[in-house]
Amino acid sequence: MAEEMDRGGPTGQCGHWQLSTLATERNRSCRWSHCQCHQSLPKGWSAEAGRALRYPRRPFPPPSPAKHIKASLARRLGQRSPASAQAQAAKPPAEVPIPEHGGGGVGAAAGEVERELDKSFGYDRHFAAKYELGKEVGRGHFGHTCLARARKGDMRGQLLAVKVISKAKMTTAISIEDVRREVKILKALSGHSNLVKFYDACEDALNVYIIMELCEGGELLDRILSRGGRYTEEDAKVIVEQILNVVSFCHLQGVVHRDLKPEH
User: Fold this and answer.
1) Residue 178 among the catalytic residues
2) In this structure, is residue 94 part of a structural domain?
3) pTM for this prediction
4) Mind giving me the DSSP string for 156-214?
5) Catalytic entry in 6, 118, 124, 259
6) Tens digits of per-residue pLDDT, 5-56?
7) Is 163 known to sit in a ligand binding site?
8) Are residue 7 and residue 49 in the same domain, yes or no?
């Protein structure tokens, strides 16, 4: 028997069509409780079935709450959506003026951008007069660390550690700001008994010099390995307590370490 819907006219005040007894298996129901459909259900229907059919499935999933986050990250990283990239590709390339005095084209433009970077930090420029630089003891991606000895002042003759950061490797404004922030953080954290002491920051035309306390105790990782990777609970408790004190002090200064490990 074919299932049909009685479309004789609306019932109640909701304007929905009443289901006939022949349409008992159709996934159609009324959502309004004042409708006659709920007052007199067709034969074979139950209130539970009516409630189950009252809210049909959404035809589309709800919008993702992470879309705006992804979009902001894409803008920050310089990425573009396929639609915007296609629109950009459709635009004609901008005309680049030819330099009249034999300029270097793209290379000259890049050099001009680099010259516009302000690599003056405002630090003391008398490093050579105040400190005697010694041998190199470590090297990283942006600089290296050397031994140094103070020439004058209260620290005269004292051995120090100097981090030398080359200005030639500061090719972006972000890298310059990273150096400023490093010095600022070292100043803010100086004074804790379990943190390296910061003494001074100097610069010249080529480098930035960060003068700090010389720590000759070695790395925690080397001590762990020297014991065969085993630490008693009493010995580990002393080290963990110092680490937690340092982390708490950093947090009070608004600094998060983000790279805690035995090597550091």
Assistant:
1) no
2) no
3) 0.56
4) TT-EEEEEEEEGGG--SHHHHHHHHHHHHHHHHHTT-TTSPPEEEEEE-SSEEEEEEE-
5) 259
6) 444 444 444 444 444 444 444 444 444 444 544 455 556 665 555 555 555 5
7) yes
8) yes
